[in-house]
Write a structure and sequence with these properties.
The complex is a heterodimer. Chain A is mainly α. Chain A contains twelve helices and two strands; from the N terminus they run αααααββααααααα. The chains are: A mainly alpha, B mainly alpha. The interface between A and B is large, with 43 and 42 residues.
């Protein structure tokens, strides 16, 4: 343990900025999770693995000499179809069932993806180098890689596009109607099956964007998926379903928390602290609700 | 209990006692099977009887594993130096030290997780449904990540448990661990069976079916939920301690808090056999162990792919498990009386 954070204010600023940029990325993944959770009432444990898969698409483009930033366009398109395929094969059979069934089924998908990616891409930690350089702030005391700024910017652009799409387009309206009341939407002529498939596809595409951005900003590894799932789950339960500003805020909060945990506790406890924070948040909410004799459900 | 079931129990007991001598090559496999059955049976107390689908029982399993090995080493040698030497033979347990350490270790491995379950139970078991599932998943992974950062129990490089003393070689080692795990299995079975004949099981089922109503009927549900969890933790810890000695090497995320393997296995085994029955998890664990060993042998390298597919298939097409399927097919065998007219009416309604 070292408390450099408190002795040097520059490190605090560095951690805050890093955390903010990271948090925006988390918020994008969490938005996808909130979308499918709200519409289909499914918790997708494979969310993080979809992110990593999206990252590998960008990484492969990098390997073949294409600039990985184009992955931001290509990866969501491929991931959209991957999402549709997963929906058709598995998810449509668990939509109306017990939530635990969907958790377990997606857990199975997660294990499957992890291992397939391990076979296809190898178990090395990889990074697609974007060559964007760095920005120095405050007399070169704070170092910000431009790729992080780029990824935060792209995440915001995609989030805004999606919000507008949800508000304006016909499919967006159908998705929102299904989220409110699937049965009523069905009666009024919405093909809920199609809406579900599209929702899952959009979610996977968002994961693809986030993955491509993660592959140029951080590192990817086949087994790194679960922490992203847990992070997005945490962001969603803190913010609540369908609360977009909340998702963005709690995403950034989580990013900053992680950076500080990294500095104070050490890198080896970083993931552990994320999972512990999830437990603490849930327990906190449980005690808060139990005062009113309610419970999380 | 009627005469037939006595014959069945005694038959299984005798088979269990002679099994390592009939199949001497499979002693380790049989020991692992016993541990798997213990885990599936105790998971069933939560997931099947109480309706609290937990991924967190792996926490007690891993805790028991680390505790048993730490006590076994720490009773005679400095623990920090042991883990630092990374399993080199600088410290050697004499046979009596080994067995004393193991006995003390197993007691600690069973008791401490029980206490931990009691302490965190009030906070965690207040959550319901999928919040509980994800929370316990987080708990298991957090425990793995955090124990992977603690130096004294080996951190990232792992913890080598004391090797079996040099008496009787591999044969004796296999028999020792087999009878240990079989003993744990018998103990678990007797305890769980005893629990399932009491009012306690009915209360757990009431919690599963409708917790609010159970509470309204004057049952202090939290008390029973915590007790149920503590019972699970006791046997999970015990199983973990035995498994640690059997594997001989403890790693934080790959052996002890292995949410990706053991943590899912116990859920899957109970579901495969049939949740909420006494025999379901036992049959499920046995079947699953055969499946798994088949995968591990024939699809070497592809076993996790096969496992992922297996999970999806079981969960989607077979959620009631084997016992549930049998119950639907032969309801008379399970003591259910069917009113033929009523059944027909229901079919027509469908």
């Amino acid at each position: 343990m070292d408390f450099l954070v408190f002795q040097y204010p520059m490190i605090t600023i560095q951690a805050c900025l890093d955390g903010l940029l990271l948090g925006i990325l988390f918020a994008l993944i969490a938005y996808g999770m909130a979308l499918q959770w709200g519409v289909m009432n499914i918790i997708n444990i494979a969310q993080g693995d979809l992110v990593i898969l999206g990252g590998y698409i960008a990484y492969f483009m990098y390997l073949y000499g294409i600039h990985p930033a184009w992955g931001v366009i290509v990866s969501p398109i491929i991931m959209y179809f991957v999402g549709i395929a997963i929906y058709k094969l598995v998810i449509n059979k668990v939509v109306d069932r017990d939530l635990f069934i969907s958790i377990l089924a997606t857990f199975g998908i997660s294990i499957l993806f992890m291992q397939l990616m391990n076979f296809a891409f190898g178990a090395d930690v990889v990074l697609a180098n974007s060559g964007y350089g760095t920005t120095m702030l405050f007399d070169n005391n704070v170092v910000l890689p431009n790729s992080k700024i780029f990824s935060a910017f792209i995440s915001i652009v995609f989030a805004i596009c999606l919000v507008v799409y949800m508000k304006r387009s016909k499919l967006g309206r159908a998705i929102r109607a299904t989220a409110q009341n699937a049965r009523a939407a069905k009666i009024l002529g919405v093909d809920t099956e199609k809406v579900y498939a599209a929702t899952f596809g959009i979610n996977a595409a968002l994961c693809g964007v986030a993955g491509a951005l993660i592959s140029i900003t951080f590192t990817i590894h086949p087994y790194m998926g679960l922490p992203y799932t847990i992070r997005s789950f945490m962001i969603v339960i803190v913010a609540g379903l369908g609360n977009l500003p909340g998702v963005a805020m709690s995403g950034m909060g989580l990013g900053i928390f992680e950076e500080f945990a990294d500095y104070i506790l050490g890198t080896e406890f970083r993931i552990g602290s994320v999972f512990l924070l999830l437990v603490l948040i849930l327990v906190y909410r449980r005690f808060k609700l139990s005062r009113k004799r309610e419970y999380l459900k | 209990m009627n005469k037939n079931s006595w014959i069945l129990y005694i038959g299984i007991l005798v088979f269990g006692l002679v099994a390592p001598f009939i199949f001497p090559a499979f002693k380790v496999q049989l020991s692992i099977l016993c541990v798997l059955i213990v885990l599936a049976t105790t998971w069933n107390i939560q997931g099947g009887e109480m309706g609290y689908n937990t991924f967190g029982n792996i926490l007690f399993y891993g805790l028991g594993m680390y505790l048993c090995a730490s006590v076994q080493v720490g009773m005679f040698f400095p623990l920090a130096e042991w883990t630092e030497s990374g399993g080199e033979k600088t410290f050697v347990h004499t046979p009596s030290q080994f067995f004393q350490g193991m006995a003390a270790g197993l007691v600690v491995a069973a008791v401490v997780p029980t206490i931990v379950a009691g302490l965190i139970g009030y906070a965690i078991l207040g959550l319901r449904g999928h919040y509980f599932a994800i929370c316990t998943l987080g708990l298991g992974v957090a425990a793995g990540e955090i124990s992977g950062g603690i130096e004294i129990i080996g951190a990232g490089q792992g913890f080598t448990t004391p090797p079996f003393p040099n008496i009787g070689g591999l044969e004796a080692r296999g028999e020792f661990f087999y009878f240990l795990s079989f003993g744990a299995l018998v103990l678990t079975f007797i305890a769980v069976r005893a629990i399932y004949t009491t009012r306690f099981r009915l209360i757990l089922n009431a919690i599963r079916d409708n917790e609010d109503k159970a509470e309204a009927m004057g049952i202090e549900t939290m008390k029973y939920k915590i007790t149920g969890w503590m019972i699970s933790a006791f046997f999970c810890g015990l199983a973990g301690g035995i498994m640690g000695g059997l594997v001989g090497y403890i790693d934080s995320t790959d052996v002890a808090f292995d949410g990706r393997e053991m943590g899912v296995f116990m859920v899957l085994m109970a579901i495969l056999g049939g949740k909420g029955t006494l025999w379901g998890p036992i049959i499920g664990a046995t079947l699953f162990h055969f499946f798994k060993e088949g995968f591990w042998t024939f699809f070497l390298g592809w076993q996790y792919v096969a496992l992922g597919v297996l999970i999806v298939v079981i969960v989607i097409y077979f959620p009631e498990g084997l016992m549930g399927w049998l119950r639907e097919k032969y309801p008379e065998r399970f003591g259910e009386v069917i009113d033929e007219a009523d059944r027909k009416a229901q079919v027509e309604l469908k």
